[in-house]
Design goal:
About 50% of the residues lie in helices and about 15% in strands. The chain is globular, with a radius of gyration of 19 Å. Helix 3 runs parallel beside helix 4, helix 5 packs antiparallel against helix 6 and helix 9 packs antiparallel against helix 10. The protein is of the alpha/beta class. The chain folds into two domains: about 200 residues, Alpha-Beta Complex (2-enoyl-CoA Hydratase, Chain A, domain 1), CATH 3.90.226.10; about 45 residues, Lyase 2-enoyl-coa Hydratase, Chain  A, domain 2 (Orthogonal Bundle), CATH 1.10.12.10. The protein has eleven helices and eleven strands. May play a role in fatty acid biosynthesis and insulin sensitivity.
Length: about 260
């Protein structure tokens, strides 16, 4: 089944949906229209119990070049100098990144090209990321007088502070192996990011969708809390998860030495 619109293509195979950023001429920049299209796609998938994993990939020479600087610059002639449009754009981008984190399904970025600025933020906001051998990542806002403050939110939650700040302060691009070493991506696939992401997605899609939903939500919720509160929250989630149908089935299957049969959420 294939469903597409002008900006983001959607293709499904089994329990995995693949979203493809499809504005190669603009290097898949996050214009207002691109933000809206991707957000709409995610909203549709959020409601789909049959889709267990989402892969985000891109067409063209760049995974995503960040914000559309031409679009932003065009609004400098607005009466307010562009402030209103700039604020609206940054709020929309931030909302999209949070939507990815809050999505019931895990989201895997498949990056074969360069991801810059808010494009790097997009990769860091995904739950997992697979890079091809030629992928590159950078936050070069400092080169044009615009510090990547919103990408810093996602980077600082993925990387050690010194790694994140080095990327932000220098704007220097790093390759796939360096991104793997500092934790920006999970693995480098020599067969290409799409192949590696597909294998990872299928592995996760075979697990209990109910357990994955519990786990993703709890992971992000506990991470922002002090240790005691984090354990309190995780303990409550574990108890709730134990009462779920997939946990009953999974434990019974383990004890009976058979394959579990997961129900669709």
């Amino acid at each position: 089944m294939t469903d597409s619109n002008e900006f983001v293509l959607q293709e499904e195979a089994g329990h995995v949906a693949r979203l493809t950023l499809n504005r190669p001429a603009s290097r898949n920049a996050l214009s207002v229209a691109m933000l809206a299209a991707l957000s709409q796609r995610l909203d549709g998938l959020e409601k789909r119990g049959d889709i267990r994993v989402v892969v985000l990939q891109a067409e063209g020479p760049a995974f995503c070049a960040g914000h559309d600087l031409k679009e932003l610059t065009a609004h400098r002639s607005d009466a307010d100098g562009g402030r209103g449009f700039f604020e609206e754009t940054m709020r929309g981008c931030s909302a999209l990144m949070q939507k990815i984190v809050g999505l019931r399904q895990p989201v895997i970025a498949a990056v074969d090209e360069i991801a810059t600025a808010a494009g790097c933020q997009l990769v860091a906001s995904c739950d997992l990321a697979v890079a091809g051998p030629n992928a590159r990542f950078c936050t070069p806002g400092v080169d044009i007088g615009l510090f990547c403050s919103t990408p810093a939110v996602a980077l600082s939650r993925n990387l050690a502070p010194k790694h994140a700040l080095e990327m932000l302060l220098t704007g220097f691009p790093i390759g796939a192996e360096a991104a793997l070493r500092i934790g920006l991506v999970n693995r480098v696939s020599q067969d290409g990011a799409r192949t590696g992401a597909r294998a990872l997605a299928e592995l996760i899609a075979a697990k209990s969708p109910e357990a994955i939903r519990f786990g993703k939500r709890a992971f992000y919720a506990q991470r922002e809390k002090p240790l005691v509160e984090a354990y309190d929250l995780a303990s409550a989630v574990m108890a709730e998860n134990m009462l779920a149908e997939d946990a009953k089935e999974g434990i019974a299957a383990f004890l009976e030495k058979r394959a579990p049969e997961w129900r669709e959420p």
